[in-house]
Amino acid sequence: MSEELRRPVLDNHLHLDPDHGRGLEAVEEFARVGGTHLLVVNKPSWHLGVAAGEDGREGFEAVFERTLEIVEAASDLLPGRAWAILGVHPGLVSRLVEDGHSGAEAETIMKTGIDTAAGYVADGRALGLKSGRPHYEVPEGVWEASNAVMRRAFERAADLECAVQLHTEASEDLTEVAAWAEEAGLPAHRVVKHYASGRLEGVTPSVMCERDWLLEAADRGEPFLMETDFIDDPDRPGAVLGPKTVPRRVAWLLEEGHEAAVETAHVETPKRVYGIDTVGTLESP
Q1: Which end of the chain is more exposed for a tag (fewer CB within 10 A), N or C?
Q2: How many Å apart are CA 180 and CA 184, to the nearest integer?
Q3: Long-range contacts for 251-257 (Cβ within 8 Å, ≥24 apart)?
Q4: Which among 18, 96, 19 has a CA at the least distance from the CA of 59?
Q5: Sequence-ordered list of residues with C-beta below 8 angstroms from that of 44, at least 6 positions apart, any chain
Q6: H/E segment holding residue 60
Q7: For residue range 16-55, what is the model confidence (pLDDT) as tens digits?
Q8: Is residue 60 domain-resident?
Q9: What is d(CA 202, CA 263) in angstroms, rounded to the nearest whole number?
Q10: With contact defined as beta carbons under 8 Å apart, do 146 and 134 qualify?
Q11: Can you tell me the distance from the alpha carbon of 14 to that of 36, in angstroms, rounded to the nearest whole number?
Q12: Is residue 188 assigned to a domain?
C-alpha cells in the first residue's frame, strides 16, 4: 500500500458502553491515534442492566439493539467503519445456574440468545456471532451445556456463512473445537478465539496486544487478528487494554519491520474470516 494512503487498523474485539462507560469518546480516541475499523462485541447482558431469563429473547434484543445504536454512531466517527458482533457471553450460564436454573434450562435460554443474534446477522445488521464457554472451573453439566450452546452458534454461523468469536479458557490448542465447527459446516478459520496469545492451533487467533504475543504471531506467519478487549467499564478503568493500544502496536510492529504481519492482521485475515474489505471501506486522508 502506498505510504500516501491511510492504513487500515482494526481492533477485532472491544466493548462500548454508551450509558455507563466512555462510549463514543473511546472511539474518538482510537481514531485520533490512527485507528480506522472496529468490531464491537455486545457487553454481557448484566453489564447493561438486562437479565435474560425465560423471556430471554426480549432481554437479548434489548442488549443487541443498544449495541447496534453505538456501532452506527461509531461508524460516523471513524475513517473506516464499525461492525457488530452479537451473541451470548458464556459467563451467563453461571448466573443462570446461580439463579436456580438447571444446566439444561440455562442451555435453552442461551441458545435463544444465539438464535436471536443470528437473526441480526441474517438481516445484515450484525457481522458475526459471539459464543464460547467459561474460562473458569464449572460443574460437568454446566460445561456440557456451554459446549452445546457453542455448537449451536457454529450451526447458525454455518447457515449464515458468518464468523463466530469465542470466549474460552486460555489455550494454544482448540483443534477439538475446530472439528466441531467443521462438523457443523463452518470452516475452522471462521472461528476466532478472542483473547488469544501468539500461538494457537485449530482456529484463528485474535491476539491480545501484548508485545511478546504479537511478535510470536508475526514470526509464525499464520493468519491472526489484533484486539484490546477494551471493556469500557468505569469501575475497572485499568482492566485489559485501552482503545489506543492497537494503533500504537501497529506503529511499533512497523518500526520493527513487520509490514507483512500488519497487512495480515488488518487486511488479509479480516477478509478471510469475515469477508470484510478494510481497504475499500477506508476514506482517503
Answers
A1: C
A2: 6
A3: 251/34, 252/211, 253/214, 253/218, 256/215
A4: 96
A5: 89, 91, 92
A6: helix 56-77
A7: 998 889 999 999 999 999 999 999 999 886 655 555 555 5
A8: yes
A9: 21
A10: yes
A11: 14
A12: yes
Single-letter amino acid code for the residue at 89:
H
Cell of 28: 474518538
> Measured at the alpha carbon of residue 82, what is the angle toward residues 260 and 224, in degrees to the nearest 5?
30
What phi and psi values does residue 197 have, to the nearest 5 degrees?
Answer: -85, -165
Q: Which residues of 161-194 are buried (b: 16+ CB within 10 A; e: fewer)?
A: ebbbbbbbeebeebeebbebbeebebbbbbbbbb
Residue 50: the pLDDT is 55
Residues (pLDDT < 70) of the chain are 1-5, 45-56, 285
Using CA atoms, how far apart are residues 7 and 154, in angstroms rounded to an integer? Answer: 32
> Residue holding cell 479458557?
169
In a domain, 17, yes or no: yes
Neighbours of 50 (CB within 10 A): 17
Identify the pLDDT of residue 1.
36
Total domains in the chain come to 1
pLDDT reported for residue 236? 83
Backbone phi, then psi, for 118, in 5-degree steps? -60, -30
User: Could you list the residue range(s) of the whole structural domain that residue 113 is in?
Assistant: 10-274
CA 200 – CA 211 distance, rounded (Å)? 16
- Report the CATH number that the domain containing residue 36 is assigned in CATH: 3.20.20.140
Note the pLDDT of residue 12: 98
Query: Does residue 189 fall inside a structural domain?
Result: yes
